[in-house]
Amino acid sequence: MDRLKQLVEGWIDAEPGRNARRLADASGVSRTTVYSLLSRTQQSRRMVERSTLEALAGGMGVHANVLIEAARDDAGYWTEEARGAVSPRIRALQAALDDLTEAEAEEVAEVAEVVLRRVLSRRAAAGQLPLGGVPDQRTGTAGS
Predict the structure, then answer these.
(1) Can you give the residue ranges of every domain in the chain?
(2) What is the pLDDT of residue 27?
(3) What does each of the 144 residues of the chain score in pLDDT, given as a tens digit?
(4) Which of 27, 28, 66, 69 has the fewest CB atoms within 10 Å of its CB?
(5) Whose CA is closest to 119, among 132, 108, 107, 128?
(6) What span, in angstroms and rounded, lies between the C-alpha atoms of 51 and 55?
């Protein structure tokens, strides 16, 4: 199932006169991009650029996260359902992070990394070593 394609088709079919060209014009995305999304096949489901999804969401009048989650699911990334229940606290953090600029989100990630390292250090001192450690944002590998 291609959720992103279904969402775009659903928007087009919801009102007479809507078509791929109108969506392209409303979102500022090229017609070629919209037509490519509508003709995607099972083999061509790679992740769509976030900026494209955000622009399409604006043109469709939906929150960008709706299209982003659909695209992630289509590309094979884990969705919340696949990961299991997510706590309300984590959902609130995710929503807040989505509203930040890239630079602001990076700053929050750096602060979180420092705090997590401090917590892990205390646990290590108490003999409660976690598996893996905190991922280093620069390398993506687990650190101490």
Answers:
(1) 3-82, 100-125
(2) 96
(3) 688 999 999 999 999 999 999 999 999 999 999 999 998 876 566 788 999 999 999 999 988 888 888 888 888 776 555 555 566 677 677 777 777 888 888 898 889 888 888 888 888 888 775 555 544 545 444 454
(4) 28
(5) 128
(6) 6
Task: Write out the two tokens for 120.
Answer: 């892990």
Say yes or no: domain 3-82 is CATH 1.10.260.
Answer: yes
Helices (H), 1-141: 3-14, 20-27, 31-38, 50-60, 64-74, 80-83, 88-98, 102-125
Contact 119, 95 (CB under 8 A): no
Count of residues in the chain: 144
Residues 128 and 95: their CA atoms lie apart, in Å, by 31
Q: Cα dist. 70→1, 61, 103, 132 in Å?
A: 10, 16, 25, 30
